């Protein structure tokens, strides 16, 4: 049968049976909407985990000195400039970003009263900053022990939004990167409880340089040498910054390590990030790194994969429930089509008498089911999107802030839109398959005489 | 036009098998008007279904319009029904949700032509005298008018053979007479071969031949 004629006959039949079909496709709409909802939720959570909580760069690996005792006894290697050169020479390695721990103690004593009035008035103009927050800033009194490290500025260059991240001139404050994760926790718990402003990229340019004392501790009394009073300026937030401390330019870290901890501390790195040409090079690069006597730190990647796996399993579980609902709907649709075929027995016989082949009859029934699937799938998808928006509204707008609370809990991959419709069509066609087969196999002479 | 050789058809299997036709042989030339007469259960409708390619579960040979039906695939048999045969049923078998024009054009859905010609449907409805009822639904038509629509539907694809199963069975005598006249006119004026099944032979007095079926066998030879 020609497609145009088939679609006409299908639309005529659907109009006639719309009540039956609407009733039987309710389950389909519910199933598809819950399928859409849970898949979008799973993707949204995985997106948050992958971009905010455990961001993993697919083309980068973190190399650390080997930590096993045996290797340490056997003289395990440290990461020094020679090792960095060897890393650069590995096939497929595009760039090497060394990282160095600060090998001395540091502290910061912050006092809101010392913030210049001009800086305060600038902060006051930022949208969202209330007079109460400004008062809280003025009242700040914090004594902090500072940990830190130094990273290659190329690694975080895109994150520097409030100044240059490079070794500063002697009279300039040290540029500092803060961990996005640490800031998120600060924003949603510490700052909220104390009515302090949230730290974000918009606020950074207005934060004045803060005091920093190198080679000093409020706790340890066994420091040698004199302390150095300087300042630090937060220039950006980065996933590559240390979680509980400050991250400064590598050259600055080297300079102060040399000054306070000696030459050896200024020449050994605690890690190096290797960037490969493509993810295909990850395996060979890892093997070469191991051969050179170093380990790959996969803790973050494994954590991300574990969380991703848990989210995937939970999503699959809920999706399975949705598919069971759709499956039950398919049984309902099958029942409806059996009923419709029984009612249309004579009509099918007539169509066969007028020249419809078995394939034509099958195509008509399956076409009707497919159309029900498209409509049911579209309605289910619409209901699913509505569910997502409603949940987003309640959770994002109504629930109080918590760490890593995303702007939306849902993500909508393109395939999901097609997949929802395709699932609906597939289940409907599956449901109508046996009725269609029975209708096609009907003896036309028997159907016409009602036998 | 119709050549049947040793046609047998049983309903049911094994000991429960009931013969509907037993070794029936028949030859009907093109342009003939044949009535098939017999009591209920004598095999009249079965014979019509076999000739029309609706029933393929028989033994023997059926060659209609030069085509051996047994050798045809389902698709070929469907095309044969669509193009060569026109069926008229006792209960009209009109689709209640379609108007007269749409009912008549129904077979066009299964033809190989690209479009559904409502002009052709109108033409055949005019031919059967229903030019005023083109847009009427079956529920708005009398029994005789319904049967005329059914005849128009049978004529739509310009078949060579009309198979009518008790076409007057649901009509009063006067209306039945009009329908019979219409069949006679189709046979005489349009040269169509007509095979009509009936309980009452006297209704089709102008038939060129009457076949009497008894228990699935021809009870008497051809009559002029």
Give a verbal description of the structure.
The complex is a heterodimer of chains A (451) and B (224). Chain A is α+β, with helices and mostly antiparallel strands. In chain A, 56% of the residues lie in helices and 15% in strands. Chain A is built from 17 helices and eleven strands. Chain A has helices spanning 3-16, 18-24, 26-53, 69-73, 81-88, 117-124, 131-138, 153-156, 180-194, 250-261, 263-267, 282-291, 299-343, 345-353, 358-398, 414-441, 444-449; strands spanning 60-65, 93-101, 106-111, 141-146, 148-151, 174-179, 210-214, 228-238, 246-249, 271-276, 294-296. In chain A, the strands form two sheets. Chain A has a six-stranded mixed beta sheet. Chain A has a five-stranded mixed beta sheet with strand order 4-3-7-8-6. The longest helix of chain A has 45 residues, at 299-343. Chain B has one domain: Rossmann fold (3-Layer(aba) Sandwich). Chain B is 29% helix and 26% strand. Chain B has helices spanning 44-51, 74-83, 100-104, 118-127, 143-155, 173-190; strands at residues 2-11, 18-28, 33-38, 59-64, 67-68, 85-88, 161-165, 193-198, 209-214, 217-218. Chain B starts with a strand and ends in a 6-residue tail after the last strand. Chain A binds chain B through residues 1-2, 4-5, 8-9, 12, 15-16, 346-347, 349-360, 443-445, 448-449, and chain B through 45-46, 49, 52, 54-55, 57, 74-75, 77-79, 81-83, 87, 89, 93, 95, 97-98, 106-111, 114, 116, 153, 157.
Count of individual beta strands of chain B: 10
In helices, the fraction of residues of chain B equals 25-40%
**CATH H level of chain B: which superfamily?**
P-loop containing nucleotide triphosphate hydrolases
Q: How many domains, in number, for the residues of chain A? A: 2
Straight-line N-to-C gap of chain B: 18 Å
Q: Order the strands across the largest sheet of chain A as they lie in space.
A: 9-5-2-10-1-11
Report the average pLDDT across residues of chain A. Answer: 89
How many beta-strand runs of chain A?
11
Number of helices of chain B: 6
Uncertain stretches of chain B: none
Secondary structural class of chain A: alpha+beta
| Mean of residue pLDDT values of chain B | 88
Percentage of residues in DSSP E strands of chain A: 5-15%
Separation of the first and last Cα atoms of chain A: 27 Å
Instruction: Assign an overall shape of chain B.
Output: globular
Provide the low-confidence segments of chain A as ranges.
none
CATH class of chain B: Alpha Beta
């Amino acid at each position: 049968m020609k497609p145009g004629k088939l679609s006409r006959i299908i639309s005529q039949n659907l109009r006639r049976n719309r009540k039956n079909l609407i009733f039987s496709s309710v389950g389909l709409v519910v199933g598809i909407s819950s399928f859409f909802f849970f898949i979008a939720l799973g993707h949204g959570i995985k997106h948050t985990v992958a971009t905010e909580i455990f961001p993993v760069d697919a083309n980068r690996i973190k190399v650390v000195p080997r930590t096993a005792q045996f290797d340490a006894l056997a003289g395990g290697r440290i990461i020094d400039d020679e090792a960095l050169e060897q890393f650069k020479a590995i096939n497929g390695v595009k760039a090497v970003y060394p990282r160095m721990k600060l090998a001395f103690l540091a502290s910061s004593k912050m006092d809101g009263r010392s913030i210049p009035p001009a800086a305060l008035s600038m902060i006051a103009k930022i949208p969202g900053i209330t007079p109460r927050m400004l008062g809280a800033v003025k009242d700040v009194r914090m004594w902090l022990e500072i940990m830190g490290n130094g990273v290659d500025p190329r690694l975080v260059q895109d994150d520097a939004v409030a100044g240059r991240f490079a070794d500063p001139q002697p009279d300039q404050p040290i540029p500092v990167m803060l961990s996005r994760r640490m800031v998120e926790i600060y924003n949603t718990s510490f700052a909220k409880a104390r009515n302090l402003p949230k730290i974000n990229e918009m606020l950074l340019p207005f934060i004045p340089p803060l005091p920093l004392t190198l080679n000093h501790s409020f706790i340890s009394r066994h420091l040698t040498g004199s302390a150095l009073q300087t300042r630090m300026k937060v220039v950006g937030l980065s996933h590559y910054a240390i979680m509980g401390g400050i991250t400064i330019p590598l050259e600055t870290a080297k300079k102060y390590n040399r000054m306070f901890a000696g030459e050896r501390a200024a020449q050994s790195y605690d890690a190096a990030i290797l960037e490969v040409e493509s993810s295909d090079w990850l395996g060979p690069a890892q093997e070469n790194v191991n051969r050179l006597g170093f380990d790959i730190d996969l803790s973050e990647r494994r954590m991300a994969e574990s969380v991703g796996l848990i989210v995937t399993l939970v999503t699959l579980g809920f999706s399975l429930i949705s598919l069971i609902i759709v499956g039950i709907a398919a049984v309902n649709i099958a029942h409806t089509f059996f009923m419709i075929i029984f009612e249309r027995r004579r009509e099918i016989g007539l169509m066969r008498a007028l020249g419809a082949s078995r394939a034509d009859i099958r195509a008509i029934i399956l076409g009707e089911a497919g159309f029900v699937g498209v409509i049911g799938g579209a309605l289910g998808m619409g209901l699913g999107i509505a569910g997502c928006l409603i949940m987003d509204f309640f959770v994002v707008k109504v629930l109080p802030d918590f760490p890593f609370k995303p702007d939306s809990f849902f993500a909508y991959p393109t395939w999901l839109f097609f997949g929802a419709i395709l699932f609906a069509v597939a289940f409907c066609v599956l449901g109508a398959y046996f009725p269609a087969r029975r209708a096609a196999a009907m003896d036309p002479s028997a159907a016409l005489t009602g036998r | 036009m119709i050549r049947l050789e040793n046609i047998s058809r049983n309903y049911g299997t094994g000991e429960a098998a009931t013969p509907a036709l037993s070794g029936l042989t028949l030859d009907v030339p093109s342009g003939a008007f044949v009535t098939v007469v017999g009591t209920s259960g004598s095999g009249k409708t079965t014979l019509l279904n076999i000739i029309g390619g609706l029933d393929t579960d028989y033994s023997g040979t059926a060659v209609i319009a030069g085509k051996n039906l047994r050798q045809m695939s389902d698709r070929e048999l469907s095309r044969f029904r669509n193009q060569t045969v026109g069926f008229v049923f006792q209960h009209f078998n009109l689709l209640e949700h379609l108007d007269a024009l749409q009912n008549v054009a129904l077979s066009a859905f299964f033809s190989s032509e690209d479009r559904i010609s409502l002009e052709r449907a109108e033409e055949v409805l005019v031919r059967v005298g229903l030019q005023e009822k083109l847009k009427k639904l079956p529920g708005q038509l009398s029994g005789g008018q319904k049967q005329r629509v059914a005849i128009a539907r049978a004529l739509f694809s310009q078949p060579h053979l009309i198979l009518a199963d008790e076409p007057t069975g649901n009509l009063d005598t006067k209306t039945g007479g009009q329908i019979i006249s219409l069949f006679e006119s189709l046979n005489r004026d349009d040269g169509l071969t007509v095979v009509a099944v009936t309980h009452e032979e006297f209704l089709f007095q102008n038939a060129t031949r009457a076949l009497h079926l008894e228990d699935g066998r021809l009870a008497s030879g051809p009559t002029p």
